[in-house]
Amino acid sequence: MRQSKTFIPTLKEAPNDAVVPSHVLMTRAGMTRQVAAGVYSFLPLGWRALRNVMEIIREEMDAIGGQEFQLPALNPREIWEETGRVEAFGDTMFHIKNRDYVLAPTHEEIMTYHARRVLASYKDLPQIWYQIQTKFRNEARPRSGVIRGRQFIMKDAYSFDVDAEALEKSYALHDGAYRKIFDRCGVEFFIVGASSGAMGGSGSEEFMVRSDAGEDTVAHCEKCGYAANVEVAQSKTSPKKRDAKSAAVEEIHTPNVRSIDELCEFLKIDETQCAKSRVYVAGDEPVLVLMLGNEEVNEAKLEGALGKAVRPGHAEELKEITGADAGSIGPVGFKGRVVADERLKDANNLYSGANKNDYHLGGIDLKRDVEKIEYADLRFALAGETCVSCGATLDVFTAIELGHIFKLGTKYTEALGANYLDENGSEKPIIMGSYGIGVERILACFIEGSHDEHGIVWNRALAPFDVHLLGLNMKKPAVAETCEDVYRRLSEAGYSVLYDDRVDAQAGFKFKDADLLGMPVQVVVGERNAKEGKLEVKVRKTFERHDAPIADVEKEAAAALAKV
Ligand code: ATP
Ligand code: MG
């Protein structure tokens, strides 16, 4: 492609709101432009790279028997009502003025709608259906460029099986395909056990890339490879030790003491002597959650333990539930379910709220004073704690989720009545899996991990072009003629070539642009070299360069590309 005729609007500076490297570089390299918060256009260079990602995905999905669909983004609202997900997605779902339609944030509903009509018998199963298609989510905080958009492209696949055992097979196929896709794209990923969130279902795993731009936090053990989203990650911790003697419960007047910090300051005690109380509502049942004073409630684990969605109690309803406002709430005398973190197991001599404003209790013995208390792991694993699988030390860091594979089970097929007849003629719901990949995220994560101070450093698989051919002074016939010849020969040899044939651009400007755009190999034609029958070959990643005979350019390009 001739650069003089190609729209690649490079920029010296990135816009102020671009903070993470991939956002900065995709903007500066003329790959993307923002249209509105979280809404991006892909310009020709960016779209070429994104198409490379999609081709890799297609090849690997087809290799496991996936069949490509293209579903509508505009969906009848009614079908989303049937699965209860208009409510589940809440504000994240885009509604349009015509109340009969929504913009699809994912496609379990529509895929199941098709399955319901055609997958009638066990003979029709298994199926793997996928698509690469635009999704709409009204993300509360779109940021980091295309990493979190309000419109984005997802590869979403769905498996349909007869039973759990068959689902395992479909799930394993996707797991394998995903590893190949991310390997081929050149992103360094790891896999974590995850919570299944609003999607429902049993097992699920996320494919993650370590990155400061990430919004997920994961616990990872370098030694044994244990990795899990902190929403579900476990660590080996010891429960708080039970004192030999339990003191009697005493009520303490604590005026204006609202937080654990204030309580510790007021009573000159340590946080670990306190039981922190948080009121949640699960369904319509109030639940008091107790944590060791210095720890936070892990709501994903709480939902797992209770088996239902929870929400923190509103400030206004606390008094009605407990008899006190936030800051004075505690387990003794609480009317309702009390669930405590395992570290508090049978702990005594604790301080907590008295369920009476401006009062706390001391000498609480959870075994003695709180009837029917339940215990569960409700805390966040922290960096430096001990790995549950091997005993080494856990690291905790941020990461970006590239893909997610779920064993959905029958949530959607039951809601929408997608049943099949088994060998004995009895009707059963189809067992589903769903498998997503963020297409733009692959591209952005690749750039997060592969750039330098000059720009992007593409690998061969994702590069918009294999070779960047630079004609340094196009006004000189020797240069122009050599470039035309090299451009034709490299193209004929099967390489994709971006040819900087711009007549008015200075050499320094062309070099800067080429390093910013980051094609794996640069072939540079200058006047003196051209007259001597030579050109320069440069590997973008290492800046390794050497002169070579023009006659050898195909061989030289192959050798240089083999180094990336
Ligand atoms: P996140 O936790 O980052 O919001 P998610 O759990 O909502 O992701 P899924 O519903 O599993 O994501 O979607 C499948 C894939 O789509 C994700 O693994 C991610 O790569 C991509 N994805 C999800 N939301 C966005 C978004 N707002 N912008 C770009 N890609 C996204
Ligand atoms: Mg999300």
Q: Give the integer mean of the pLDDT values.
A: 95
Distance between the terminal alpha carbons, to the nearest Å?
Answer: 22 Å
Strand segment tally: 31
Number of helices: 16
Would you tell me which CATH topology of the largest domain applies? Answer: BirA Bifunctional Protein, domain 2
Weakly predicted, low-confidence segments: none
The biggest sheet, with number of strands, parallel, antiparallel or mixed sense and barrel status, is:
9 strands, mixed
| Architecture per CATH nomenclature, i.e. the level-2 architecture of the largest domain | 2-Layer Sandwich
Label the structural class: alpha+beta
Number of domains: 3
The general outline is globular
User: Helix content range of the residues, please?
Assistant: 25-40%
Which cofactor or ligand species appear?
A: adenosine-5'-triphosphate, magnesium ion
Q: How much strand?
A: 25-35%
CATH class label of the largest domain: Alpha Beta
**CATH homologous superfamily (4th level) name of the largest domain:** Bira Bifunctional Protein, Domain 2
Radius of gyration from CA coordinates: 30 Å
What does this structure look like?
By secondary structure, the protein is of the alpha+beta class. The chain folds into 3 domains: 13-233 and 395-447, BirA Bifunctional Protein, domain 2, CATH 3.30.930.10; 250-376, YbaK protein (Alpha-Beta Complex); 467-562, Anticodon-binding domain (Rossmann fold), CATH 3.40.50.800. The protein is built from 16 helices and 31 strands. Helix 1 crosses helix 12 (439-449). The longest helix has 22 residues, at 164-185. The chain is globular and about 100 Å long. It binds adenosine-5'-triphosphate and magnesium ion. Adenosine-5'-triphosphate (ATP) binds at residues 106, 137, 139, 148-149, 152, 154, 401-404, 436-438, 440-441. Residues 106, 137, 139, 148-149, 152, 154, 401-404, 436-438, 440-441 line the site of adenosine-5'-triphosphate.
